[in-house]
Protein backbone atom coordinates (compact mmCIF):
# COMPACT_ATOMS: atom_id res chain seq x y z
CA UNK A 1 0.00 0.00 0.00
CA UNK A 2 1.35 3.45 -0.90
CA UNK A 3 -0.31 6.41 0.85
CA UNK A 4 0.39 9.95 -0.32
CA UNK A 5 -0.18 12.63 2.37
CA UNK A 6 -0.87 12.00 6.05
CA UNK A 7 -4.32 13.54 6.60
CA UNK A 8 -6.86 11.88 8.88
CA UNK A 9 -8.53 9.51 6.32
CA UNK A 10 -5.16 8.44 4.90
CA UNK A 11 -3.72 7.87 8.38
CA UNK A 12 -6.71 5.73 9.41
CA UNK A 13 -6.42 3.65 6.21
CA UNK A 14 -2.67 3.23 6.72
CA UNK A 15 -3.17 2.09 10.31
CA UNK A 16 -5.92 -0.36 9.30
CA UNK A 17 -3.79 -1.83 6.49
CA UNK A 18 -0.70 -2.20 8.67
CA UNK A 19 -2.79 -3.81 11.41
CA UNK A 20 -4.13 -6.38 8.92
CA UNK A 21 -0.57 -7.34 7.94
CA UNK A 22 -0.10 -5.26 4.80
CA UNK A 23 3.17 -3.48 4.02
CA UNK A 24 2.56 0.28 4.06
CA UNK A 25 4.65 3.17 2.75
CA UNK A 26 3.30 6.57 3.81
CA UNK A 27 4.90 9.60 2.15
CA UNK A 28 4.15 13.30 2.49
CA UNK A 29 5.72 16.20 0.64
CA UNK A 30 5.33 18.42 3.70
CA UNK A 31 7.65 18.43 6.70
CA UNK A 32 4.86 17.78 9.20
CA UNK A 33 2.13 15.22 9.77
CA UNK A 34 -1.54 15.80 9.07
CA UNK A 35 -1.74 17.93 5.92
CA UNK A 36 -4.72 20.27 6.34
CA UNK A 37 -5.58 18.42 9.58
CA UNK A 38 -2.33 19.53 11.24
CA UNK A 39 -1.68 21.67 14.32
CA UNK A 40 1.11 24.24 14.60
CA UNK A 41 2.92 26.20 17.25
CA UNK A 42 2.57 29.96 16.79
CA UNK A 43 5.82 30.37 14.85
CA UNK A 44 5.02 27.24 12.85
CA UNK A 45 1.68 28.76 11.87
CA UNK A 46 3.41 31.96 10.77
CA UNK A 47 5.69 29.87 8.54
CA UNK A 48 2.62 28.12 7.13
CA UNK A 49 0.98 31.52 6.48
CA UNK A 50 4.03 32.79 4.64
CA UNK A 51 4.25 29.63 2.57
CA UNK A 52 0.61 29.89 1.49
CA UNK A 53 0.81 33.60 0.77
CA UNK A 54 3.83 33.16 -1.49
CA UNK A 55 2.65 29.92 -3.20
CA UNK A 56 6.01 29.14 -4.78
CA UNK A 57 6.16 26.39 -7.39
CA UNK A 58 8.16 23.28 -6.59
CA UNK A 59 10.76 22.50 -9.21
CA UNK A 60 11.69 18.94 -10.17
CA UNK A 61 14.74 17.77 -8.23
CA UNK A 62 15.33 14.99 -10.74
CA UNK A 63 14.57 15.48 -14.42
CA UNK A 64 15.55 11.96 -15.49
CA UNK A 65 12.60 10.17 -13.90
CA UNK A 66 10.84 9.77 -17.27
CA UNK A 67 13.57 7.29 -18.30
CA UNK A 68 12.02 4.87 -15.77
CA UNK A 69 8.78 4.68 -17.74
CA UNK A 70 8.51 1.66 -20.07
CA UNK A 71 6.91 1.60 -23.50
CA UNK A 72 3.76 -0.16 -22.30
CA UNK A 73 3.29 2.35 -19.49
CA UNK A 74 1.93 5.86 -19.18
CA UNK A 75 2.11 8.41 -16.42
CA UNK A 76 -0.43 10.48 -14.51
CA UNK A 77 1.39 13.56 -13.27
CA UNK A 78 0.55 14.78 -9.79
CA UNK A 79 0.19 18.41 -8.78
CA UNK A 80 3.28 20.09 -7.35
CA UNK A 81 1.38 23.06 -5.98
CA UNK A 82 -1.09 22.95 -3.09
CA UNK A 83 -4.18 24.94 -4.10
CA UNK A 84 -6.39 23.97 -1.15
CA UNK A 85 -5.65 27.15 0.85
CA UNK A 86 -6.56 30.62 -0.45
CA UNK A 87 -7.08 34.21 0.70
CA UNK A 88 -4.76 34.01 3.72
CA UNK A 89 -4.79 37.26 5.72
CA UNK A 90 -3.30 37.74 9.18
CA UNK A 91 -3.43 40.73 11.52
CA UNK A 92 -1.82 41.75 14.77
CA UNK A 93 -4.06 43.81 17.06
CA UNK A 94 -1.80 43.67 20.12
CA UNK A 95 1.15 45.82 21.13
CA UNK A 96 4.38 44.95 19.33
CA UNK A 97 6.68 46.28 22.05
CA UNK A 98 10.30 45.76 20.97
CA UNK A 99 9.22 42.52 19.33
CA UNK A 100 12.34 42.36 17.18
CA UNK A 101 14.39 41.44 20.25
CA UNK A 102 12.25 38.42 21.18
CA UNK A 103 12.68 34.94 19.75
CA UNK A 104 10.88 31.65 20.12
CA UNK A 105 12.76 29.64 17.53
CA UNK A 106 14.72 31.13 14.64
CA UNK A 107 14.23 34.75 13.61
CA UNK A 108 11.17 36.59 14.86
CA UNK A 109 8.47 37.24 12.27
CA UNK A 110 7.38 40.87 12.01
CA UNK A 111 3.65 41.30 11.69
CA UNK A 112 1.82 44.37 10.44
CA UNK A 113 -0.66 46.12 12.67
CA UNK A 114 -4.36 46.00 11.81
CA UNK A 115 -5.00 47.18 8.30
CA UNK A 116 -2.16 45.49 6.45
CA UNK A 117 -2.18 41.78 5.76
CA UNK A 118 0.75 39.44 5.57
CA UNK A 119 3.43 37.97 7.77
CA UNK A 120 6.83 39.24 6.72
CA UNK A 121 10.25 37.97 7.55
CA UNK A 122 9.09 34.63 8.93
CA UNK A 123 11.95 32.28 9.68
CA UNK A 124 11.15 29.09 11.51
CA UNK A 125 12.86 25.78 12.01
CA UNK A 126 11.03 22.87 10.42
CA UNK A 127 8.43 21.52 12.78
CA UNK A 128 6.70 18.20 13.13
CA UNK A 129 9.45 16.25 11.37
CA UNK A 130 9.60 13.22 13.62
CA UNK A 131 6.90 10.63 14.23
CA UNK A 132 4.72 10.73 17.33
CA UNK A 133 6.83 10.39 20.46
CA UNK A 134 6.50 8.66 23.80
CA UNK A 135 5.43 11.84 25.55
CA UNK A 136 2.09 11.70 23.72
CA UNK A 137 1.20 8.66 25.84
CA UNK A 138 0.06 9.92 29.23
CA UNK A 139 -0.24 7.44 32.06
CA UNK A 140 -3.52 7.53 33.95
CA UNK A 141 -2.97 7.29 37.70
CA UNK A 142 -5.25 9.57 39.71
CA UNK A 143 -9.01 9.44 40.06
CA UNK A 144 -9.19 13.11 41.02
CA UNK A 145 -11.45 15.04 38.65
CA UNK A 146 -10.50 18.15 36.70
CA UNK A 147 -6.83 17.19 36.25
CA UNK A 148 -4.67 15.91 33.44
CA UNK A 149 -1.06 15.02 32.82
CA UNK A 150 0.79 17.90 31.22
CA UNK A 151 3.03 16.11 28.78
CA UNK A 152 4.42 17.62 25.60
CA UNK A 153 2.49 16.43 22.53
CA UNK A 154 4.01 14.82 19.50
CA UNK A 155 3.05 17.86 17.45
CA UNK A 156 5.00 20.19 19.72
CA UNK A 157 8.10 18.00 20.09
CA UNK A 158 9.32 18.03 16.50
CA UNK A 159 12.15 20.42 15.87
CA UNK A 160 12.34 21.33 19.56
CA UNK A 161 15.65 20.52 21.22
CA UNK A 162 14.82 22.33 24.43
CA UNK A 163 13.27 20.62 27.40
CA UNK A 164 9.60 21.24 27.98
CA UNK A 165 8.69 23.31 30.99
CA UNK A 166 5.18 21.96 31.43
CA UNK A 167 4.35 21.13 35.02
CA UNK A 168 3.49 17.53 35.83
CA UNK A 169 0.01 17.12 37.16
CA UNK A 170 -2.03 14.04 37.94
CA UNK A 171 -4.33 12.45 35.35
CA UNK A 172 -7.99 11.71 35.41
CA UNK A 173 -9.60 8.53 34.17
CA UNK A 174 -13.28 7.73 34.00
CA UNK A 175 -14.81 4.26 34.13
CA UNK A 176 -17.12 4.19 31.15
CA UNK A 177 -18.47 0.65 30.76
CA UNK A 178 -17.73 -0.47 27.26
CA UNK A 179 -14.82 1.89 26.67
CA UNK A 180 -11.42 2.62 28.07
CA UNK A 181 -11.16 6.05 26.49
CA UNK A 182 -9.00 8.34 28.59
CA UNK A 183 -10.65 11.63 29.41
CA UNK A 184 -8.09 14.27 30.37
CA UNK A 185 -9.04 17.40 32.22
CA UNK A 186 -6.76 20.11 33.44
CA UNK A 187 -7.23 21.61 36.87
CA UNK A 188 -9.71 24.45 36.73
CA UNK A 189 -8.91 27.87 38.05
CA UNK A 190 -10.28 28.69 41.51
CA UNK A 191 -13.67 30.34 41.61
CA UNK A 192 -13.59 34.06 42.03
CA UNK A 193 -16.34 36.38 43.10
CA UNK A 194 -15.69 38.89 40.36
CA UNK A 195 -13.94 38.49 37.04
CA UNK A 196 -10.39 39.84 37.25
CA UNK A 197 -9.10 42.49 34.92
CA UNK A 198 -7.61 40.68 31.91
CA UNK A 199 -3.83 40.87 31.77
CA UNK A 200 -2.30 42.89 28.98
CA UNK A 201 -0.75 40.43 26.52
CA UNK A 202 1.70 41.73 23.95
CA UNK A 203 2.80 40.25 20.66
CA UNK A 204 6.29 39.60 22.01
CA UNK A 205 4.78 37.50 24.82
CA UNK A 206 2.82 35.45 22.30
CA UNK A 207 6.02 34.83 20.32
CA UNK A 208 8.02 34.02 23.44
CA UNK A 209 5.38 31.49 24.54
CA UNK A 210 4.80 30.30 20.98
CA UNK A 211 5.30 26.64 21.79
CA UNK A 212 2.42 26.79 24.24
CA UNK A 213 0.15 27.16 21.20
CA UNK A 214 -1.15 24.21 19.19
CA UNK A 215 -3.27 25.85 16.52
CA UNK A 216 -5.46 23.61 14.35
CA UNK A 217 -5.98 24.27 10.67
CA UNK A 218 -9.36 22.57 10.92
CA UNK A 219 -11.64 23.08 13.91
CA UNK A 220 -13.66 20.07 15.02
CA UNK A 221 -14.97 18.35 18.13
CA UNK A 222 -15.52 14.65 18.77
CA UNK A 223 -19.06 13.46 19.42
CA UNK A 224 -18.87 11.16 22.45
CA UNK A 225 -20.82 8.50 20.56
CA UNK A 226 -19.49 9.42 17.13
CA UNK A 227 -17.69 7.15 14.69
CA UNK A 228 -14.23 8.48 15.54
CA UNK A 229 -14.60 7.87 19.28
CA UNK A 230 -15.88 4.36 18.58
CA UNK A 231 -12.90 3.73 16.29
CA UNK A 232 -10.41 5.09 18.82
CA UNK A 233 -11.84 2.73 21.46
CA UNK A 234 -12.12 -0.30 19.18
CA UNK A 235 -8.57 0.01 17.82
CA UNK A 236 -7.12 1.02 21.21
CA UNK A 237 -5.60 4.11 19.57
CA UNK A 238 -7.23 6.15 22.35
CA UNK A 239 -4.25 5.29 24.59
CA UNK A 240 -2.09 7.58 22.44
CA UNK A 241 -4.07 10.72 23.30
CA UNK A 242 -5.90 12.54 26.07
CA UNK A 243 -9.21 14.33 25.83
CA UNK A 244 -11.05 17.08 27.62
CA UNK A 245 -14.77 17.69 27.82
CA UNK A 246 -16.36 20.60 26.06
CA UNK A 247 -17.73 22.18 29.22
CA UNK A 248 -20.57 24.34 27.90
CA UNK A 249 -22.83 25.04 24.93
CA UNK A 250 -23.45 28.73 24.25
CA UNK A 251 -26.00 30.65 22.21
CA UNK A 252 -25.89 34.13 20.67
CA UNK A 253 -29.29 35.79 20.92
CA UNK A 254 -30.35 39.44 20.87
CA UNK A 255 -26.72 40.56 20.85
CA UNK A 256 -25.75 38.58 23.96
CA UNK A 257 -23.94 35.32 24.64
CA UNK A 258 -25.69 32.99 27.08
CA UNK A 259 -25.31 29.41 28.20
CA UNK A 260 -27.69 26.77 26.88
CA UNK A 261 -29.08 24.14 29.30
CA UNK A 262 -28.58 20.73 27.70
CA UNK A 263 -28.81 17.95 30.24
CA UNK A 264 -31.75 17.34 32.59
CA UNK A 265 -29.78 18.83 35.49
CA UNK A 266 -28.86 21.91 33.43
CA UNK A 267 -32.48 22.47 32.47
CA UNK A 268 -33.82 22.34 36.01
CA UNK A 269 -30.94 24.44 37.41
CA UNK A 270 -31.25 27.08 34.71
CA UNK A 271 -32.26 30.59 35.78
CA UNK A 272 -32.83 31.65 32.19
CA UNK A 273 -35.94 29.51 31.74
CA UNK A 274 -39.26 29.73 33.50
CA UNK A 275 -40.84 26.60 34.98
CA UNK A 276 -43.22 26.43 32.01
CA UNK A 277 -40.31 26.64 29.55
CA UNK A 278 -38.43 23.93 31.43
CA UNK A 279 -41.35 21.56 31.10
CA UNK A 280 -41.79 22.47 27.43
CA UNK A 281 -38.12 21.83 26.70
CA UNK A 282 -37.96 18.51 28.57
CA UNK A 283 -41.12 17.28 26.87
CA UNK A 284 -39.76 18.10 23.42
CA UNK A 285 -36.31 16.60 24.06
CA UNK A 286 -37.92 13.41 25.41
CA UNK A 287 -39.96 13.21 22.20
CA UNK A 288 -36.80 13.66 20.06
CA UNK A 289 -35.06 10.70 21.74
CA UNK A 290 -37.63 8.27 20.33
CA UNK A 291 -39.29 10.29 17.61
CA UNK A 292 -39.35 7.23 15.31
CA UNK A 293 -41.94 5.68 17.63
CA UNK A 294 -44.30 8.62 17.10
CA UNK A 295 -44.47 9.23 13.33
CA UNK A 296 -47.91 10.77 13.60
CA UNK A 297 -46.40 13.79 15.36
CA UNK A 298 -44.02 14.77 12.54
CA UNK A 299 -45.03 13.01 9.30
CA UNK A 300 -47.26 15.93 8.26
CA UNK A 301 -44.19 18.19 8.40
CA UNK A 302 -41.66 15.97 6.61
CA UNK A 303 -41.55 18.38 3.67
CA UNK A 304 -41.25 21.40 5.95
CA UNK A 305 -38.07 22.80 7.46
CA UNK A 306 -37.12 21.94 11.03
CA UNK A 307 -37.60 25.59 12.00
CA UNK A 308 -41.19 25.49 10.74
CA UNK A 309 -41.81 22.25 12.63
CA UNK A 310 -40.54 23.82 15.87
CA UNK A 311 -43.08 26.63 15.54
CA UNK A 312 -45.88 24.05 15.66
CA UNK A 313 -44.63 22.54 18.94
CA UNK A 314 -45.80 25.41 21.19
CA UNK A 315 -42.23 26.34 22.07
CA UNK A 316 -41.23 29.87 23.04
CA UNK A 317 -38.96 31.86 20.72
CA UNK A 318 -35.95 31.39 23.02
CA UNK A 319 -36.47 27.61 23.17
CA UNK A 320 -36.78 27.43 19.39
CA UNK A 321 -33.52 29.36 19.08
CA UNK A 322 -31.70 27.09 21.56
CA UNK A 323 -32.91 23.88 19.89
CA UNK A 324 -32.28 25.02 16.32
CA UNK A 325 -28.85 26.65 16.71
CA UNK A 326 -27.30 25.14 19.85
CA UNK A 327 -28.67 21.60 20.13
CA UNK A 328 -29.53 20.44 16.60
CA UNK A 329 -27.00 22.96 15.15
CA UNK A 330 -28.70 22.99 11.77
CA UNK A 331 -29.60 25.58 9.17
CA UNK A 332 -32.84 27.50 9.59
CA UNK A 333 -33.68 27.36 5.87
CA UNK A 334 -32.11 24.19 4.44
CA UNK A 335 -32.68 21.56 7.14
CA UNK A 336 -35.72 19.31 6.84
CA UNK A 337 -37.79 18.17 9.80
CA UNK A 338 -36.34 14.65 9.74
CA UNK A 339 -32.76 15.92 9.52
CA UNK A 340 -33.39 18.24 12.46
CA UNK A 341 -34.88 15.45 14.57
CA UNK A 342 -31.95 13.17 13.73
CA UNK A 343 -29.44 15.87 14.68
CA UNK A 344 -31.26 16.57 17.95
CA UNK A 345 -31.38 12.86 18.81
CA UNK A 346 -27.65 12.47 18.08
CA UNK A 347 -26.87 15.39 20.38
CA UNK A 348 -29.01 13.95 23.20
CA UNK A 349 -27.62 10.42 22.84
CA UNK A 350 -24.08 11.75 23.27
CA UNK A 351 -24.94 13.54 26.52
CA UNK A 352 -23.68 11.98 29.72
CA UNK A 353 -21.20 9.50 28.28
CA UNK A 354 -18.17 11.55 29.29
CA UNK A 355 -19.73 14.67 30.77
CA UNK A 356 -22.57 17.17 30.61
CA UNK A 357 -21.99 17.98 26.93
CA UNK A 358 -21.83 15.65 23.92
CA UNK A 359 -18.32 16.71 22.87
CA UNK A 360 -14.67 15.90 23.56
CA UNK A 361 -11.59 17.80 22.46
CA UNK A 362 -8.13 16.19 22.12
CA UNK A 363 -5.48 17.85 24.28
CA UNK A 364 -2.83 19.59 22.14
CA UNK A 365 -5.25 19.95 19.25
CA UNK A 366 -7.06 18.03 16.52
CA UNK A 367 -3.70 17.46 14.79
CA UNK A 368 -2.90 14.81 17.38
CA UNK A 369 -5.53 12.42 15.98
CA UNK A 370 -3.86 11.72 12.58
CA UNK A 371 -0.55 11.26 14.40
CA UNK A 372 -2.11 8.69 16.72
CA UNK A 373 -3.11 6.55 13.74
CA UNK A 374 0.30 7.13 12.13
CA UNK A 375 1.87 5.76 15.31
CA UNK A 376 -0.32 2.65 15.17
CA UNK A 377 0.72 2.13 11.54
CA UNK A 378 4.40 2.55 12.44
CA UNK A 379 4.11 0.10 15.34
CA UNK A 380 2.88 -2.54 12.90
CA UNK A 381 5.65 -1.95 10.38
CA UNK A 382 4.52 1.06 8.37
CA UNK A 383 7.29 3.24 6.89
CA UNK A 384 6.97 7.04 7.00
CA UNK A 385 8.80 9.57 4.83
CA UNK A 386 8.18 13.30 5.28
CA UNK A 387 9.48 15.91 2.80
CA UNK A 388 9.12 13.21 0.18
CA UNK A 389 7.02 14.27 -2.80
CA UNK A 390 5.70 12.04 -5.58
CA UNK A 391 6.09 13.03 -9.22
CA UNK A 392 3.60 10.74 -10.91
CA UNK A 393 1.61 7.53 -10.97
CA UNK A 394 2.81 4.83 -13.39
CA UNK A 395 -0.08 3.09 -15.16
CA UNK A 396 0.03 -0.10 -17.21
CA UNK A 397 -1.60 0.56 -20.59
CA UNK A 398 -2.98 -2.96 -21.00
CA UNK A 399 -4.56 -3.53 -17.58
CA UNK A 400 -5.24 0.10 -16.77
CA UNK A 401 -4.01 -0.43 -13.21
CA UNK A 402 -1.44 1.68 -11.42
CA UNK A 403 1.83 -0.21 -10.95
CA UNK A 404 4.11 2.26 -9.19
CA UNK A 405 4.90 5.84 -8.26
CA UNK A 406 8.01 7.85 -9.03
CA UNK A 407 9.28 10.08 -6.23
CA UNK A 408 11.20 13.36 -6.42
CA UNK A 409 14.52 11.48 -6.21
CA UNK A 410 13.68 9.58 -9.39
CA UNK A 411 13.04 6.34 -7.52
CA UNK A 412 10.35 3.99 -8.75
CA UNK A 413 8.26 2.48 -5.92
CA UNK A 414 5.91 -0.41 -6.72
CA UNK A 415 2.68 -1.13 -4.85
CA UNK A 416 -0.66 -2.88 -5.31
CA UNK A 417 -2.89 -0.09 -4.00
CA UNK A 418 -2.44 3.68 -3.91
CA UNK A 419 -4.13 6.18 -1.60
CA UNK A 420 -3.92 9.81 -2.79
CA UNK A 421 -5.27 12.96 -1.20
CA UNK A 422 -7.39 15.09 -3.50
CA UNK A 423 -4.96 18.04 -3.38
CA UNK A 424 -2.28 15.97 -5.16
CA UNK A 425 -4.40 15.43 -8.27
CA UNK A 426 -3.66 17.68 -11.21
CA UNK A 427 -6.21 19.92 -12.92
CA UNK A 428 -6.40 17.57 -15.91
CA UNK A 429 -7.87 14.86 -13.66
CA UNK A 430 -10.22 17.22 -11.78
CA UNK A 431 -11.82 18.97 -14.76
CA UNK A 432 -15.33 17.74 -13.81
CA UNK A 433 -14.93 18.20 -10.05
CA UNK A 434 -16.79 21.05 -8.36
CA UNK A 435 -15.30 21.96 -4.98
CA UNK A 436 -16.85 23.75 -2.05
CA UNK A 437 -14.89 26.03 0.24
CA UNK A 438 -14.67 26.47 4.01
CA UNK A 439 -14.12 29.87 5.62
CA UNK A 440 -11.82 29.71 8.64
CA UNK A 441 -10.57 32.20 11.20
CA UNK A 442 -8.31 31.70 14.20
CA UNK A 443 -8.13 34.34 16.93
CA UNK A 444 -5.99 34.75 20.03
CA UNK A 445 -8.00 36.70 22.64
CA UNK A 446 -7.40 37.92 26.18
CA UNK A 447 -10.63 36.63 27.80
CA UNK A 448 -13.63 34.39 27.24
CA UNK A 449 -16.76 35.36 25.32
CA UNK A 450 -18.70 34.53 28.50
CA UNK A 451 -16.86 34.96 31.80
CA UNK A 452 -17.80 32.67 34.68
CA UNK A 453 -16.24 31.57 37.97
CA UNK A 454 -13.93 29.18 36.12
CA UNK A 455 -11.56 30.44 33.46
CA UNK A 456 -10.92 26.94 32.13
CA UNK A 457 -13.86 26.49 29.79
CA UNK A 458 -14.13 24.78 26.43
CA UNK A 459 -17.12 26.36 24.71
CA UNK A 460 -19.00 25.86 21.47
CA UNK A 461 -21.17 28.66 20.13
CA UNK A 462 -23.29 28.82 16.99
CA UNK A 463 -23.92 32.33 15.69
CA UNK A 464 -27.02 32.37 13.45
CA UNK A 465 -26.77 34.24 10.16
CA UNK A 466 -28.00 37.82 9.93
CA UNK A 467 -29.45 37.22 6.46
CA UNK A 468 -31.53 34.16 5.61
CA UNK A 469 -29.74 31.82 3.25
CA UNK A 470 -26.33 32.60 4.69
CA UNK A 471 -24.58 29.88 6.75
CA UNK A 472 -24.37 29.95 10.53
CA UNK A 473 -20.90 30.33 12.02
CA UNK A 474 -19.56 27.71 14.43
CA UNK A 475 -17.30 29.19 17.13
CA UNK A 476 -15.12 26.97 19.33
CA UNK A 477 -13.29 28.67 22.19
CA UNK A 478 -10.38 26.81 23.82
CA UNK A 479 -8.73 27.65 27.13
CA UNK A 480 -5.12 27.07 28.17
CA UNK A 481 -5.95 23.75 29.88
CA UNK A 482 -6.49 22.22 26.42
CA UNK A 483 -2.75 22.79 25.82
CA UNK A 484 -3.54 24.85 22.74
CA UNK A 485 -2.69 28.35 24.00
CA UNK A 486 -0.63 30.16 26.62
CA UNK A 487 -1.93 31.11 30.04
CA UNK A 488 -4.28 34.14 30.23
CA UNK A 489 -5.27 33.76 26.57
CA UNK A 490 -7.98 31.92 24.63
CA UNK A 491 -7.79 30.34 21.21
CA UNK A 492 -10.96 30.90 19.17
CA UNK A 493 -11.82 29.01 15.96
CA UNK A 494 -14.54 30.21 13.59
CA UNK A 495 -15.81 28.01 10.75
CA UNK A 496 -18.57 28.19 8.15
CA UNK A 497 -19.20 27.13 4.54
CA UNK A 498 -17.84 29.85 2.26
CA UNK A 499 -19.91 32.33 0.34
CA UNK A 500 -17.09 34.85 -0.15
CA UNK A 501 -13.55 35.12 1.20
CA UNK A 502 -13.01 33.97 4.77
CA UNK A 503 -12.55 37.51 6.03
CA UNK A 504 -15.75 38.73 4.36
CA UNK A 505 -17.70 35.76 5.77
CA UNK A 506 -16.37 35.83 9.33
CA UNK A 507 -15.28 39.36 10.20
CA UNK A 508 -18.89 40.53 10.88
CA UNK A 509 -19.21 37.76 13.50
CA UNK A 510 -15.82 38.64 14.97
CA UNK A 511 -16.93 42.25 15.32
CA UNK A 512 -20.10 41.17 17.14
CA UNK A 513 -18.30 39.02 19.69
CA UNK A 514 -14.92 40.70 20.11
CA UNK A 515 -13.23 44.05 20.47
CA UNK A 516 -10.97 44.81 17.50
CA UNK A 517 -10.19 48.33 18.67
CA UNK A 518 -6.46 48.83 19.32
CA UNK A 519 -6.89 52.22 20.96
CA UNK A 520 -6.85 52.49 24.74
CA UNK A 521 -10.09 54.43 25.12
CA UNK A 522 -13.13 52.54 23.90
CA UNK A 523 -16.81 52.54 24.68
CA UNK A 524 -18.04 50.58 27.68
CA UNK A 525 -19.71 47.98 25.47
CA UNK A 526 -16.45 47.35 23.61
CA UNK A 527 -14.49 47.14 26.86
CA UNK A 528 -16.71 44.27 28.04
CA UNK A 529 -15.92 42.23 24.94
CA UNK A 530 -12.77 40.07 24.73
CA UNK A 531 -9.94 41.85 22.92
CA UNK A 532 -8.45 40.20 19.83
CA UNK A 533 -4.66 40.09 20.02
CA UNK A 534 -3.97 38.33 16.73
CA UNK A 535 -6.07 36.87 13.93
CA UNK A 536 -5.74 34.93 10.69
CA UNK A 537 -8.38 34.29 8.02
CA UNK A 538 -8.17 31.74 5.21
CA UNK A 539 -10.30 29.65 2.87
CA UNK A 540 -9.83 25.88 2.75
CA UNK A 541 -11.02 23.54 0.02
CA UNK A 542 -13.82 21.14 0.98
CA UNK A 543 -13.50 18.10 -1.29
CA UNK A 544 -15.84 15.87 0.72
CA UNK A 545 -18.74 14.42 -1.19
CA UNK A 546 -16.87 14.28 -4.50
CA UNK A 547 -17.62 11.00 -6.27
CA UNK A 548 -14.65 8.98 -7.50
CA UNK A 549 -16.20 8.84 -10.97
CA UNK A 550 -15.79 12.62 -11.19
CA UNK A 551 -12.04 12.17 -11.55
CA UNK A 552 -11.02 11.56 -15.17
CA UNK A 553 -8.77 8.62 -16.00
CA UNK A 554 -7.98 7.33 -12.51
CA UNK A 555 -7.00 3.63 -12.35
CA UNK A 556 -9.25 1.32 -10.35
CA UNK A 557 -6.60 0.66 -7.68
CA UNK A 558 -6.04 4.38 -6.94
CA UNK A 559 -8.30 5.69 -4.17
CA UNK A 560 -8.84 9.38 -3.49
CA UNK A 561 -9.32 10.79 0.01
CA UNK A 562 -10.87 14.18 0.65
CA UNK A 563 -9.62 16.93 2.89
CA UNK A 564 -11.50 18.31 5.92
CA UNK A 565 -15.20 19.10 5.59
CA UNK A 566 -17.20 21.87 7.26
CA UNK A 567 -19.10 19.56 9.66
CA UNK A 568 -18.42 19.74 13.38
CA UNK A 569 -17.62 16.04 13.76
CA UNK A 570 -15.27 13.62 11.99
CA UNK A 571 -17.78 11.05 10.72
CA UNK A 572 -17.08 11.83 7.06
CA UNK A 573 -13.36 10.99 7.36
CA UNK A 574 -14.01 7.75 9.26
CA UNK A 575 -16.70 6.58 6.82
CA UNK A 576 -14.44 7.34 3.89
CA UNK A 577 -11.50 5.45 5.41
CA UNK A 578 -13.59 2.38 6.22
CA UNK A 579 -15.22 2.35 2.76
CA UNK A 580 -11.85 2.46 0.97
CA UNK A 581 -10.36 -0.21 3.25
CA UNK A 582 -13.31 -2.57 2.67
CA UNK A 583 -13.03 -2.07 -1.10
CA UNK A 584 -9.38 -3.11 -0.96
CA UNK A 585 -9.73 -5.92 1.61
CA UNK A 586 -13.39 -6.98 1.89
CA UNK A 587 -12.61 -10.00 4.12
CA UNK A 588 -10.43 -8.13 6.65
CA UNK A 589 -11.67 -6.52 9.85
CA UNK A 590 -11.33 -2.75 9.93
CA UNK A 591 -8.87 -1.58 12.64
CA UNK A 592 -9.19 -4.40 15.18
CA UNK A 593 -7.64 -3.91 18.60
CA UNK A 594 -4.03 -5.08 18.93
CA UNK A 595 -3.54 -8.18 21.09
CA UNK A 596 -2.72 -7.79 24.77
CA UNK A 597 0.52 -9.45 25.89
CA UNK A 598 -1.33 -11.86 28.17
CA UNK A 599 -3.50 -12.99 25.25
CA UNK A 600 -0.53 -14.11 23.14
CA UNK A 601 -0.25 -17.93 23.33
CA UNK A 602 3.04 -19.60 22.48
CA UNK A 603 3.51 -23.26 21.60
CA UNK A 604 5.77 -24.69 24.30
CA UNK A 605 7.43 -27.08 21.86
CA UNK A 606 8.56 -24.17 19.71
CA UNK A 607 10.02 -22.13 22.57
CA UNK A 608 13.76 -22.58 22.82
CA UNK A 609 15.69 -22.02 26.07
CA UNK A 610 16.96 -18.73 24.68
CA UNK A 611 13.41 -17.55 23.92
CA UNK A 612 12.16 -18.60 27.34
CA UNK A 613 14.70 -16.35 29.01
CA UNK A 614 16.56 -19.10 30.90
CA UNK A 615 19.70 -19.05 28.78
CA UNK A 616 22.90 -17.82 30.38
CA UNK A 617 24.22 -16.50 27.10
CA UNK A 618 24.52 -12.70 27.03
CA UNK A 619 22.43 -10.53 24.72
CA UNK A 620 20.07 -13.33 23.72
CA UNK A 621 16.97 -11.15 23.86
CA UNK A 622 16.30 -9.38 20.55
CA UNK A 623 16.09 -5.62 20.59
CA UNK A 624 12.63 -4.16 19.95
CA UNK A 625 12.02 -2.34 16.71
CA UNK A 626 12.22 1.43 16.57
CA UNK A 627 8.46 1.76 16.27
CA UNK A 628 7.79 -0.60 19.19
CA UNK A 629 10.30 1.09 21.45
CA UNK A 630 8.96 4.53 20.58
CA UNK A 631 5.41 3.51 21.39
CA UNK A 632 6.28 1.73 24.61
CA UNK A 633 3.48 -0.73 23.85
CA UNK A 634 4.10 -4.45 24.15
CA UNK A 635 0.80 -5.21 22.41
CA UNK A 636 2.52 -4.47 19.11
CA UNK A 637 3.95 -8.01 19.10
CA UNK A 638 2.30 -10.09 16.38
TrEMBL record:
Q: Is Cytoplasm given among the entry's keywords?
A: yes
Where the record annotates domain RAE1/2, the positions are 438-566
Query: May I ask which residue range the UniProt record assigns to the signal sequence?
Result: none
Classification via InterPro entries? FAD/NAD-bd_sf (IPR036188), GDP_dissociation_inhibitor (IPR018203), Rab_escort (IPR001738), RAE1_2_domI_C (IPR054420)
**Subcellular compartments:** Cytoplasm, Cytosol
Chain intervals with Acidic residues compositional bias: 600-609
Keywords tagged on the record: Cytoplasm, GTPase activation, Transferase
Major location category of this protein: cytoplasm
* Xref: Gene3D superfamilies: FAD/NAD(P)-binding domain (3.50.50.60), Guanine Nucleotide Dissociation Inhibitor, domain 1 (1.10.405.10), Guanine Nucleotide Dissociation Inhibitor, domain 2 (3.30.519.10)
Q: Which GO terms describe its molecular function?
A: GDP-dissociation inhibitor activity; GTPase activator activity; transferase activity
**Renumbered residue ranges of the record's region Disordered:** 119-175, 591-638
Any Gene Ontology CC annotation:
Rab-protein geranylgeranyltransferase complex
For biological process, the GO terms are: intracellular protein transport; small GTPase-mediated signal transduction; vesicle-mediated transport
**Which PANTHER family does the entry mention?**
CHM, RAB ESCORT PROTEIN 1 (PTHR11787:SF4), RAB GDP-DISSOCIATION INHIBITOR (PTHR11787)
The family this protein is said to belong to:
Belongs to the Rab GDI family.
Protein name from the UniProt record: Rab proteins geranylgeranyltransferase component A 2
Q: Whose protein is this, by species? A: Nipponia nippon (Crested ibis)
